[in-house]
Design a protein that fits this description.
Layout: H1 3-17, H2 20-29, H3 66-74, H4 78-95, H5 108-115, H6 150-157, E1 172-175, E2 188-190, E3 195-200, E4 203-208, E5 214-219, E6 227-232, E7 238-243, E8 248-252, E9 257-262, E10 269-275, E11 278-283, E12 287-292, E13 300-304, E14 310-315, E15 321-326, E16 331-335, E17 343-345, E18 352-357, E19 364-369, E20 375-380, E21 385-391, E22 396-401, E23 407-412, E24 418-423, E25 428-434, E26 440-445, E27 451-456, E28 460-465
Antiparallel strand pairs: 1-28, 2-3, 3-4, 4-5, 6-7, 7-8, 8-9, 10-11, 11-12, 12-13, 14-15, 15-16, 16-17, 18-19, 19-20, 20-21, 22-23, 23-24, 24-25, 26-27, 27-28
Helix pairs in contact: 4-6
């Protein structure tokens, strides 16, 4: 054996048998030259920094942050639906999910149920049996040139519901000088005759949506009074005007004359609500008065249940129950026969002005809280139970349901000053409208149910197209329904 080779071999064996610390010291002293350190020829990659979450977004589909889920609720564009369809197509081809229709991005429950199935296994291995006919769900026709399966073909051919476009800008803007920036007042209302009544300072003005003509109905400056609320009756011929001194005046809009003046309140009247020929008025004196304009003024019902100013009043569509909200953070429900509230809800943490009864579901009541609450809540007045609630992020000033679809609109104050359109019961946001620079304190719906008007302390009235006339529920085709055969 060569002596040089034997010496190098012994040196290498002694170097490998040394402990770690002496070898490290020796390497440092010798500056660890690359010639003396030998390594193998195997390459072992490190997987410490690998990103294993890129699996067609399959693993992280159910691990979204609240911000991402909130953005997913706001998704209403065509690109979001295309993304959902593409994700479903990938799952069909790669994972065999078997999705045949594109889910609606608005309904998170359906989207979660369809797209998150089989989430425990990323890959599935199946053995295709021979002799299966070509028209089955798993196999495609042998004459088809498409690489996609039958499920994917059904997915691509499934009808897509066109997204409803809601304009983000108002189609009309009117100046409203002296429109007060007061949360507890109700100064805008839209009649069944397409007349808009607005209380500006001490005057009430009528604006015709058909002719755009403006007429002044009354001027209370002669008596040193001011307007605090306006409300049309159901037929649209009479308008009730609440004043700062506690009076309620009934005016004939067509004739432009005052019919009567109702007394009984000792403070301003900020809320009014008609129920046929009966008129309910809520005041800062914490009392709700119900009076029939056909009877003498002495025949009245006094409802005492709030401890602070009454700022919201709404009658149910069946004319049987009255909902009232006050600055005491209470929401009360009254019937037409008792002087005590039949139900009381105390979940709100601020004043309850926004109240709306659903025209689609019997006994469903929606309410919104003020700045300290910011929540939109739903109640089942038939059982007295709370249904749902969501934090809107800002003060809720008004609520109104759509007449044709199961949707509602809410206007907000501090600090977003925005208008939100919600889909019920999923509570997804259909649209977000901005434009007012002050709190959106006033809201009214057009008689056809398509447009709304909003008023704010910036002294402007803005008209928006937010609702559609198309109904969500299909018409019954039963032969027992006689109304389907009437034309």
């Amino acid at each position: 054996m060569d002596q040089d080779y034997e010496r190098r071999l012994l040196r290498q064996i002694n170097h490998q048998n040394l402990p770690a610390e002496p070898r490290l010291a020796k390497c440092v002293s010798a500056a660890c030259s690359p010639v003396s350190v030998k390594s193998g020829d195997r390459f072992i990659p490190t997987r410490a920094g690998s990103n294993w979450s890129i699996n067609f977004h399959y693993a992280n589909e159910n691990c979204r942050s609240p911000d991402q889920s909130h953005k997913a609720k706001d998704a209403s564009s065509d690109s979001s639906k295309d993304a959902v369809a593409y994700a479903a197509l990938l799952r069909n081809e790669l994972l065999g999910a078997g999705i045949e229709s594109v889910p609606d991005p608005h309904t998170d429950e359906r989207r979660h149920a369809v797209l998150s199935q089989d989430s425990r296994s990323l890959f599935r291995y199946t053995v295709h049996a021979k002799g299966v006919p070509f028209d089955s769900d798993r196999d495609v026709s042998p004459y088809s040139l498409s690489p996609l399966s039958n499920k994917s073909h059904k997915l691509l051919r499934s009808p897509r519901k066109l997204a409803r476009k809601i304009s983000k800008i108002p189609f009309k803007v009117l100046d409203a000088p002296e429109l007060q920036d007061d949360f507890y007042l109700n100064l805008v209302d839209w009649s069944a005759g397409n007349l808009l009544s607005v209380g500006l300072g001490a005057c009430v003005y009528l604006w015709s949506a058909c002719t755009s003509q403006v007429t002044r109905l009354c001027d209370l400056s002669v008596d040193g009074d001011s307007v605090t609320s306006v409300c049309w009756n159901e037929r649209g011929g009479l308008v009730a005007v609440g004043t700062h001194k506690g009076y309620v005046q009934i005016w004939d809009a067509a004739g432009g004359r005052k019919l009567t003046t109702l007394e009984g309140h000792s403070a301003r009247v900020g809320a009014l609500a008609w129920n046929g020929e009966q008129l309910s008025s809520g005041s800062r004196d914490r009392v709700i008065l119900q009076r029939d304009i056909r009877t003498p003024p002495t025949a009245e019902r006094r409802l005492q249940g709030h401890r602070q100013e009454v700022c919201g009043l709404k009658w149910s569509p069946d004319h049987q129950h009255l909902a009232s909200g006050g600055n005491d953070n209470k929401l009360l429900v009254w019937n037409s026969s008792s002087l005590l509230p039949m139900q009381q809800y105390s979940d709100h943490l601020a004043a309850v002005k926004a109240i709306a009864w659903s025209p689609h579901q019997h006994g469903l009541l929606a309410s919104g809280g003020g700045t300290a609450d910011r929540c939109l809540r739903f109640w089942n007045t038939l059982t007295g139970q709370a249904l749902q609630s969501t934090d809107t992020g800002s003060q809720v000033c008004n609520l109104a349901w759509s007449k044709h679809a199961n949707e509602l609109v809410s206007t907000h104050g501090y600090s977003q000053n925005q208008i939100l359109v919600w889909k019920y019961p999923s509570l997804t946001q259909v649209a977000k409208l901005t434009g007012h620079s002050y709190r959106v304190l006033y809201l009214a719906v057009s008689p056809d149910g398509e447009a709304i008007v909003t008023g704010a302390g910036d002294e402007t009235l803005r008209f928006w197209n937010v609702f559609s006339k198309t109904r969500c529920t299909k018409e019954s085709k039963s032969v027992l329904n006689l109304f389907t055969r009437i034309r």
